[in-house]
Amino acid sequence: MRSVRTLGVVFALLLCATAALALPLTIDSVELDEVRLVSGSVNRLDVERDDEFTLRIKVTPTAQLDNVEILAFISGYEHNDRLEERISDVVELFQADANVSYVRKLKLSLPNEVDRDDYKLRLIVSDRFGAATVTDFDLHINSQRHDVLIKDITLIPNVVRAGGAVLAKVRVDNKGQKTENDVRVSVAIPALGVHGVDYIDRVKSEDEEETEEIFLRLPRCSKPGLYEVVVSAHYSDNRRSSEARTPVNIIEDANCNQVKEQKEDKPVLQIQPQPPQPQPEKPKRGVLEIILLTLVGLLALLGLAIAISKL
């Protein structure tokens, strides 16, 4: 009996110590994109992944606090061990005076890779040594109804000679709720005016599919350099689309240089314009020649008159 009393006293002392160390602060309200969250509610708030949300928190301390920190995170995400992918945010340390309300905002980004499921949004308010105040809120992470992403682009080869061919394979990932049929995948190099198309018959929700090889023939003697390959996926009866880009390196064709050099080496005949040749002047008729012609004419007329008189 004495041992039970002793345990009770120890337990009470521990409770008192915990109470003494508890952070003198209350969480007045928590809003996610202006929607008020209630801890312990049977209802869960539906949010869509691949989106960013603003968490607005209002706290009021009952005593002065130094080095106050507010941390919000969602646990259970597959890649939370990677700091750059962790679904969390933390505010800058601040000093809080007693009976003054403080509003702080945090940003939470939900990646497209997070599973559709129920999660808890955990909120921790603490300082350096006091007991943290922890509050949980229930969320249901969902996805868009239609959402097809281009996950990977493979170019064979990715360094190609001008006038050669490129084979492209595209992998798509259906992150939406619905199965997508007849997904149209196009691959194009706009700067060269070439493109190709392939269709994927069916892509189930939360599944991936890959196209057949899409053939692209490059123009001969294309200018060497890096070109942008634009890949588009059209789905939901061509009402929605997603796009991704990747570079391809085109190198020069040596045969094009030879043809260019031959054109440059071929002599060019230059025709000099000839000045117009002066036309010879017709000689002017002399006076004697005119008189002789006149006499011949008169004699002809005289002969004709004599012949007529004899008739």
Structure notes:
There is one protein chain. This protein has 311 residues and is an alpha+beta fold. The chain has two domains: 22-142, Immunoglobulin-like, CATH 2.60.40; 148-256, Immunoglobulins (Immunoglobulin-like, Sandwich). Helices cover 18% and strands 46% of the residues. The chain has three helices and 19 strands. The chain has helices at 2-21, 254-265, 287-309, and strands spanning 25-32, 35-36, 45-48, 51-61, 65-74, 88-90, 94-96, 102-110, 117-126, 133-142, 148-156, 159-161, 165-174, 180-189, 194-203, 207-210, 214-217, 225-235, 240-251. The strands form four sheets. Strands 3, 5, 6, 7, 9 and 10 form a six-stranded mixed sheet that branches. Strands 12-19-18-14-15 form a five-stranded mixed sheet, with no helix packed on it. Strand 9 and strand 10 form a beta hairpin. Mean pLDDT is 86; it is low at 6-20.
Write down the CATH topology of the largest domain: Immunoglobulin-like
Q: Structural class of the secondary elements?
A: alpha+beta
Stretches with pLDDT under 50, minimum 5 residues: 6-20
Q: Strand percentage, roughly?
A: over 45%
Mean pLDDT over the full residue set:
86
- Subunit arrangement of the protein: single chain
Task: Characterize this entry briefly.
This protein is α+β, with helices and mostly antiparallel strands and 311 residues long. Helix content is 18%, strand content 46%. The protein has helices at 2-21, 254-265, 287-309, and strands at 25-32, 35-36, 45-48, 51-61, 65-74, 88-90, 94-96, 102-110, 117-126, 133-142, 148-156, 159-161, 165-174, 180-189, 194-203, 207-210, 214-217, 225-235, 240-251.
